[in-house]
Amino acid sequence: MGEVIVVTSGKGGVGKTTTTANLGTGLASAGQKVVLVDTDIGLRNLDVVMGLENRIVYDIVDVTSGNCRLRQALIKDKRFENLYLLPAAQTKDKTAVSPEQMKVLSDELRTDFDYAIIDCPAGIEQGFKNAIAGADRAVVVTTPEMSAVRDADRIIGLLEASELSNPRLIINRIRPLMVKHGDMMDMADILDILAIELLGVVPEDESIIVSTNKGEPAVLDRGSKAGEAYRRITRRIRGEQVALMNLDIPDGLMNKFKKLLGLH
Amino acid sequence: MTRMEHIALKGTRDGLILYFDPGVEFSVVLEELTRYLRESTEFLRGASVRCFAGEKGYSDEELRALSELLGEYRVELAGWLKPEEVYAGAVVLNPKESPPWQEEGMAEGSCLFVDRTLRSGHSVQYEGNVVVLGDVNPGAEIVAGGNIVVLGTLRGVAHAGAAGDRGASVSAGHLMPTQLRIADLVARGPDEETETVGPEIARIKNGQLFVERLTGTMWRSSLR
């Protein structure tokens, strides 16, 4: 029996889709059978981030409305045999799917897959209600900005009200240098306000922009810092205890030299 | 042609005609007409119109209210059209007999003309041919029973011959679709973006989707 995990945030642009793509790809690369579900009907993105846009024939609305069978709408990933995408519809809107239909769909996915990762749209309206309807667990994504943390707090409240308690938190796009200079909220500040379990911290990383444009999740890029963070998050999702990534920055030029010379 | 929900104004050779939806109450028509006249006073001032409401008859009181409203905006009610007058102008083509101007290589059937760019989320579905004077962006789709012609760049999804016509084609100034479908065949665009060479046409040849450059010589050869 698999697990349905919803990735949500309230605020837009904090990295829900990137997180969904990387979690799913990470889990698949660990041999799990995974399906990614895009519930952002009308503003779908996950297909683009996964580089699968040109393979879409049927979508989630076709499935829930009985236009096609689930199997027909699932798109197999380019890289992993055991990774699938159920894309959102682009020409419809959020009301095309109901929370009840999502529950039925989630039940079906739970029997066929080890993990179903649901990419939730921004906002707290119908799209959000649809996305969380069939989920067993929730992952809340935020960035170290007051506005994003405010929205994350609201989302956590709504999740708890919907009996999706104990959501876990991913702090995305943190910039260690800014934190060090006191210009950015640090982990402790955020956890102090939200008071939920931390699932991971992902550093700001330009390679994410490249990988998103290329349709290749960063989790597969051994050289990407964000990719490393997502690899660790993936292992935590599977129940392993993994230390947080070291985001400290070296003190200055001297240290870099020492490192180069092997003195450090 | 100015169109609202239950009224329509159409200019014909024989003058302006106001069509009323025979399926709704007079009050609805009157309210919509009031709104329309208020917004376009200048356009209709001094004009004379004839009205048509299908088989529906209005009471004397309603007719009086209508001419009063029109008079208020200096529009003359020149009379009512009978159904025979309206439908007489319509040409009914005999589908078995091709029209005299039909030549080999000419596609018949109705055509939808879209004079704007179709953006993500737009969906155009039409039983005949579709011509787009603009681009079709990723996330937009066209589903046509006949052929599809995009004068700009086709980056979205195009489905020609959607009802099963394997002879349908998709052509574009720049043909770089996310996905191309003709009848029951589906082809996806390349994963890497490629440069296009100019106008191209996609159609089925020997059961496979083929893309070719659209050139002048090609037209000549196909007419011969």
TrEMBL record, chain A:
Keyword terms, alphabetized: ATP-binding, Cell cycle, Cell division, Hydrolase, Nucleotide-binding, Septation
Keyword check for Hydrolase: yes
The organism's place on the tree of life at top rank: Bacteria
Keyword Protein biosynthesis: no
Entry binding sites for ATP: 11-18
Any one Gene Ontology cellular component term annotated for this protein: cytoplasmic side of plasma membrane
Gene Ontology terms, MF aspect: ATP binding; ATP hydrolysis activity
InterPro entries tied to this protein: AAA_dom, MinD, MinD_FleN, P-loop_NTPase, ParA/MinD_ATPase
Domain AAA: 3-160
GO BP annotation list: division septum assembly; negative regulation of cell division
Family recorded in the similarity comment: Belongs to the ParA family. MinD subfamily.
Function: ATPase required for the correct placement of the division site. Cell division inhibitors MinC and MinD act in concert to form an inhibitor capable of blocking formation of the polar Z ring septums. Rapidly oscillates between the poles of the cell to destabilize FtsZ filaments that have formed before they mature into polar Z rings.
Protein name: Septum site-determining protein MinD
Species: Acididesulfobacillus acetoxydans
Organism placement in taxonomy: Bacteria, Bacillati, Bacillota, Clostridia, Eubacteriales
UniProtKB/TrEMBL annotation, chain B:
Keyword Cell division: yes
Limits of the Septum formation inhibitor MinC C-terminal domain: 113-211
A single GO BP: regulation of cell septum assembly
InterPro entries xref list: CAP/MinC_C, MinC, MinC_C_sf, MinC_N_1, Septum_form_inhib_MinC_C
Domain Septum site-determining protein MinC N-terminal: residue ranges: 7-73
Keyword Cell division annotated: yes
Keywords: Cell cycle, Cell division, Septation
Pfam families: MinC_C, MinC_N_1
Alphabetical list of SUPFAM superfamilies matching this protein: Cell-division inhibitor MinC, C-terminal domain (SSF63848)
Family: Belongs to the MinC family.
Role noted for this protein: Cell division inhibitor that blocks the formation of polar Z ring septums. Rapidly oscillates between the poles of the cell to destabilize FtsZ filaments that have formed before they mature into polar Z rings. Prevents FtsZ polymerization.
Subunit relationships: Interacts with MinD and FtsZ.
Entry-linked NCBIfam families: minC (TIGR01222)
Protein name: Probable septum site-determining protein MinC
